[in-house]
Design brief:
heterodimer, A: 117 residues, mainly beta, globular, B: 111 residues, six-stranded mixed β-sheet, four-stranded antiparallel β-sheet
């Protein structure tokens, strides 16, 4: 199947700093990528839909100025957590489909464990 | 809006036991349904899917049938192994939008 690579897998940062997470589709072009956040022992919550060449669409309650998403190419989307605080500590996962349509499989990155100290 | 509800875990079984993880959904239209599995420290992997009513998805001994009349997509396996220990997520998708996930069910299988 298609491969989605996410980097870094684990990051620790100081409160007030910014962290960038990269999501790459390695063997396909993804016009749309999705960013999720997973709290311990809870489900994946969709944060935003990233569209190549245009602004991301954020879910209700997600601060767009805090979670900056850039989808500059068909194979790369980035999520930047700005001015991170301990409550931003979480597991962030990106996803992409290699083809459009609701029946197609979504491929997931390995996830990024962010810890803000 | 659309939603997925799956049984609370954790589910603890002995090896070779029968597994059922219940999943029901609420959706307008005709979504596609998925089961994803997350092994410790890893990302999500597609386990199986079904795209229309009465479809049965199957993989690695796991099965789930798309039941429109009961809006359900229960996951079953006849004989679980220790290696099946993971978190299982039921999900739905409509019109190419992002997946909507249930809360996940942790399965722990002991030998």
């Amino acid at each position: 199947g298609a491969v989605v690579s996410q980097h870094p897998s684990r990051v620790i940062c100081k409160s007030g700093t910014s962290v960038k997470i990269e999501c790459r589709s390695l063997d396909f072009q993804a016009t749309t990528m999705f960013w999720y956040r997973q709290f311990p022992k809870q489900s994946l919550m969709l944060m935003a839909t990233s569209n190549e060449g245009s602004k991301a669409t954020y879910e209700q309650g997600v601060e767009k100025d805090k979670f900056l998403i850039n989808h500059a190419s068909l194979t790369l989307s980035t999520l930047t957590v700005t001015s991170a605080h301990p409550e931003d500590s979480s597991f962030y996962i990106c996803s992409a489909r290699d083809r459009p349509g609701q029946n197609t499989e979504a491929f997931f990155g390995q996830g990024t464990r962010l810890t803000v100290v | 809006g659309d939603s997925v509800t799956q049984m609370e875990g954790p589910v603890t079984l002995s090896e070779e036991a029968f597994l059922t993880i219940n999943c029901t959904y609420t959706a307008t239209g005709y979504p596609s349904l998925f089961w994803y599995v997350q092994y410790p420290g890893e990302g999500l992997q597609l386990l199986l899917k079904a795209t229309k009513a009465d479809d049965k998805g199957s993989n690695k001994g796991f099965e789930a049938t798309y039941r429109k009349e009961t809006t359900s997509f229960h996951l079953e396996k006849g004989s679980v192994q220790v290696s099946d220990s993971a978190v299982y997520f039921c999900a739905l998708s409509q019109a190419g939008t992002a997946l909507i996930f249930g809360k996940g069910t942790t399965l722990s299988v002991s030998s």
